[in-house]
């Protein structure tokens, strides 16, 4: 119990630092592109969760410009390149690949001087993208009752203590404590009602009640294209490459379509359905540590995530397999028929010779 309270205290302190100045400069305005969407196709057995993008090469990506979340003006766009989102599911888990161009920077133990990425999903029907759920209550009054309907689900991965290519997120130690933390790599599972009311799954204001059965349901890994080692890094290899090398960051994640959540702290994905999502990216521009509200976003509103049915692909595959089997069977039947015809023809038309038998042998 003491360990959980200490974790909550440390996490709350981090949140306080992260939300300082998390207010827009002037009136909020958003000119959202209503045509953008992310599609998650049914592709079982395709992805290995290791941070490498090789197994995603045949999956269509959706490319976005990155604009500051609090001031989405094109003149302040992230200059190093676009961010691409790819998604798929295998009928049990959702998989996401986030790739973004950026010179390699890494500072071991300092998350704010390393790139970071977050995915956010709508849970409550009244949850808005703007202000991270949009509940009007402050940190002293927000509860699961006063902010009901404004819940959002967040996965945040800060890589300052994460080894490239290694798996982070849900682990037996933190899940045993009943929360969405990750003490090893800071790939954490959160929920929020607004920027000032964010908590690890399973934790929250005393008035909301904590859930000791909560889990971190996410897993993920990261990589950078400048790495020339593919057999695996260990912590002693840090910083893994030289700063300033051109390349692309890859962040790969997975989570079950459905979770055991009972308190509206996880988004639940439905095959054939649609969810709303957002992607945020932090980068230490010019070596300056980023702060919580200083992130870029792919849009100034929710982006629809369409989770496709597998039936059409299975039907196509089944039809193709059936056609191939029928063709093979027809060929075999033709060969057997030809052989049988030749055998019968031989017996019908073969010469019928009469052997001579001497009289003395009769």
TrEMBL record:
Instruction: Output the Gene Ontology terms for molecular function.
Output: heme binding; metal ion binding
Q: Which residues form the Cytochrome c-552/DMSO reductase-like haem-binding domain?
A: 53-297
Annotated transmembrane regions: 328-349
Q: Provide the leader sequence positions.
A: 1-21
For this UniProt record, the keywords arranged alphabetically read as follows:
Electron transport, Heme, Iron, Membrane, Metal-binding, Signal, Transmembrane, Transmembrane helix, Transport
State the PANTHER family in the record.
HEME BINDING PROTEIN
Q: What is this protein called?
A: Cytochrome c-552/DMSO reductase-like haem-binding domain-containing protein
Q: Any keyword Metal-binding?
A: yes
Gene3D superfamilies on file: 2.60.40.1190
In this record, what's one Pfam family? Answer: EB_dh
Q: Does the entry feature the keyword Transmembrane, yes or no?
A: yes
Coiled-coil stretches: none
